[in-house]
Amino acid sequence: MRFKDVFSIIGPSMVGPSSSHTAGAVRLGRTARHVLGGLPEHAEILLYGSFATTYRGHGTDLAIIAGLLNYDTDDMRIRDAFEKAKDAGMEVQLRTAQKAGMHPNTATFILRRGEQKAIVTGCSIGGGNIEIVGVDDFDVKFTAIYPTLLIFHADRRGILAELTDIFKHADANIGFMEVDRKSRSGDALTVIESDEVLRTEFIDQIAEIPDVYKVRVINLTSKGDIYEVL
Amino acid sequence: MRFSNLEQLIQLCVKESVTIGQLMITEQSAETGKSTELVLEQMAAYYDIMKEAVYKGIDSELKTRSGLTGGDAKRVRAYMHNGAVSLGTEACSAMAYALAVSEINASMGRIIATPTAGSCGIIPGVFVSSQERFGWSDEHMVHGLFSAGAIGYVIANNSFVSGAEGGCQAEIGSAIGMAAGALVELRGGTPVEAVHAVGLALKNSLGLICDPVGGLVEVPCIVRNGFGAVTAMAAADMALAGVKSVIPSDEVIEVMLEVGSAMPEKHRETAMGGLAQTPTGKKMMKELYDKEES
Fold first, then answer.
1. What fold characterizes domain B6-293?
2. Which residue in A19, A108, A123, B233 has the most C-beta neighbors within 10 A?
3. Is B34 on the interface with A (CB under 8 A)?
4. What is the pTM of this model?
5. Do B162 and A124 lie within an 8 Å CB cutoff?
């Protein structure tokens, strides 16, 4: 099911004018920021399809930048996002691009902060809902409706058992999980959607599992506190 | 959710002797692990924002950044107060309110996407005007939003709700179907009648393309919200009168998917066809973007 609950249909509460081009764009930007783990110093954004042809009128550019600043969809500061980005010291480059076979509302983010880099591709599928389809070189598929954990690790026997064991100890329920690996025994990415936000101590425990490189928390459910590492 | 199509939704409601709205409250609570009180509270907060948008939009002279639209809600309401309205005041009031919320949206004001921002006027237009007319409580309206949400949930998962994917039928069409079904239930109709209203309404917007001038959610989106509110009331009346959707509503949703998937890209929110590419539409786009670049 692409749409999971009643508030993905009635909602979000948002600043207009377009749920896919404005609210969805805010959520894509926010998700990309959370994948990086903090405010980007430099953000390059590629817009495809209908995003590319109509972004100006819909304020998609403002919305994406607002998302990178971690604003929610109904934040009245969205219209001032360019100035706010400047104040925050975030450099933004926005370009339109073309690629065959893309969902009509797709954006790719190339974000940098210090040594850290994140490449995130996502689509805005309607009503403010999004689907993230790429993180770095991995194929993924998650909606960010639920708190989502991204665990970057080595492809090794038993690592998933160690991972899910921590969820068991945290008394947290996994609603969706997928693993993608670049090659056998190579790098892998595990995406876990859980019903509740994992407490920081458990996230730290996951980060300490041998062969786990980094952990990122995507949490669009909260306006305030989020787990950021950068 | 225990249902993925409208037929299953009806079966569950009949089996458990509940309305679509009541069922959806329980389903939402189970799906999210939140209490029904919390779930109701969030929807009530959303209904407050809808009402705020209606009353703010109907009273103010809103101008959008493009300058293409604004003030139509006020115009319609003034007309309504000044003489005999072809539609009758009830439908005209729903139309004015729907325009008002869409104008708020176009001017970057706060709205609730129902199911999208492009179609955000229809449900508040129908709901707020009906509440005033019938004296319904906010609690009743919130239940109605859950029935609208259940219907939209089925449409969205079996077809689409974005203009870029499936054309305007997916946005305005879905909103009309949701408002029509919910209104049937608000007025005491059965789940079966509510679902007929959905099919009746959706059939009337099949094939509608998404062709906004300049790619903006203004022309023709705003007036389509006004029309949508009226159509939703018409579909609800037909269903309450006993008119049935001869093609079952679930099958109509499949047709929306088929039609939308076959729609050329130029008619799916790219502003590369339809009204956007008429001589006037192109002229407006040019003026708009020249203005922005200067």
1. 2-methylcitrate dehydratase PrpD (1.10.4100)
2. A19
3. no
4. 0.89
5. yes
